[in-house]
Amino acid sequence: MLISLTLAVDALRPIVPCSLLSLSMVPFASCAIVIGGVSWVVPRHVAQKLDNILYKSYMRLCLFVFENLSGVNIYLHGINGGEEVCKMKGTPENVVMVSNHQSNVDWIIPVMLAARHGDNGNEQAFRVMVKNSIHLVPMFGWYIFQHGYIYVRRFGEFIGAPVLRQLKWLNESIPPYWLLIFPEGTRLSAKKKKLVESSNQFLGKSGRQPMQNVLCPRSGGLQLALDNLSTLDAIYDVTVMYGQMRMSGRRGLAPGMFDFCCGAQTFKQLHIHLERIPIGEVPTEKLELRNWTIERFAQKERIIDEFYSENPSTGSVLLPCVPISQTLPSTLFFTAALLAPFFSPVIRRVYLLTIASSPLLIAWLHIRKCV
């Protein structure tokens, strides 16, 4: 009986952090709608500052789950400005981050780096170029567009107007911004053999070596960012590697959110190879940028090969965990916000209205031609 109870409790472990992040979107969206209403009567910079505070609080809740709760060891690699990025003080930079993509955890890595950048962290700067279908996620899909995320279509006709509008908004917004782009366009897994074959066929036609750890990247999103973000300071080239992928039979199989947060501590490591590239060293001509992007991913291929073949912690810096004092206040705030409707009928009605408004918020994105 005791063994069965222990196994049942262990099986429920992933539900707690997942539920905390998912359910917190209701009070988060409720606050965001209020700020959206306030933005009609206050100066733009005031509304944007309020939104940044709210968004930063939620990102710190995410850091509590993915760092403090998971107990992951984070190793930073790279000699060209990687460590300096985390030590940089003063006004944060405006950057585009280019990363490989192999897990639904990948998005949190820039947030981890941002928390260590600037005088008081830079989590509010984080944005992503995301696939168009995410706009259908209730509440979340509407909000991230308001904060400067950019929806792009993976299939069908490319519609440039909403993308260019968002880039213009970012370029003119209160700095800083960190825009994350996944040039591969989809998550790579060892199970997606046809995807790897298709990628290598394209590389072969251009006389390039095949790659197994990354896919052949597309440079379209990066091209749009470089052409429209005149305030860019640098490109951060990020290569993400998970310690669990060094386990027997796990090569090419990155952990998901449950495994990353609540899996066994053995091999629970996150290895980040970070290189800062000044914007003046990045080509902007279309063909040159495409070749440059492919070369960057060929370098990622070599970095990941070395990760599998050597002791990955050699020559790296073990980053201290983000302080609990930095993440606990946000966690307590959202926990209290989730408990509030049990004690307040008014808050309960507000949350129900927020949930009920989800279809209207999605419709708003379409009416405004945001997607």
Structural summary, described in words:
The chain has helices at residues 2-12, 15-23, 25-38, 44-69, 82-87, 108-114, 140-146, 160-172, 193-205, 220-228, 257-262, 286-309, 324-339, 345-356, 358-367, and strands spanning 73-77, 95-99, 126-131, 150-152, 178-181, 234-242, 269-278, 317-319. Strands 4-3-5-2-6-7-1-8 form an 8-stranded mixed sheet. The protein is an alpha/beta fold. Residues 5-12 have low confidence and may be disordered. The protein has one domain (2-367).
Secondary-structure blueprint:
Blueprint: H1 2-12, H2 15-23, H3 25-38, H4 44-69, E1 73-77, H5 82-87, E2 95-99, H6 108-114, E3 126-131, H7 140-146, E4 150-152, H8 160-172, E5 178-181, H9 193-205, H10 220-228, E6 234-242, H11 257-262, E7 269-278, H12 286-309, E8 317-319, H13 324-339, H14 345-356, H15 358-367
Parallel strand pairs: 1-7, 2-5, 2-6, 3-4, 3-5
Antiparallel strand pairs: 1-8, 6-7
Helix pairs in contact: 3-4, 3-14, 4-13
Summarize the structure.
One of its GO terms (molecular function) is acyltransferase activity. With 371 residues, the protein is an alpha/beta fold.
What share of the residues lie within helices?
Answer: 40-55%
Structural class: alpha/beta
Mean pLDDT over the residues? 88
Separate helix tally: 15
> Major sheet: order of its strands?
4-3-5-2-6-7-1-8
Strand content: 5-15%
Largest sheet: 8 strands, mixed
Contiguous low-pLDDT stretches (5 residues minimum) are 5-12
Evaluate the radius of gyration: 21 Å
Distance between the termini: 53 Å
Series of H and E elements = HHHHEHEHEHEHEHHEHEHEHHH
Which outline best applies?
globular
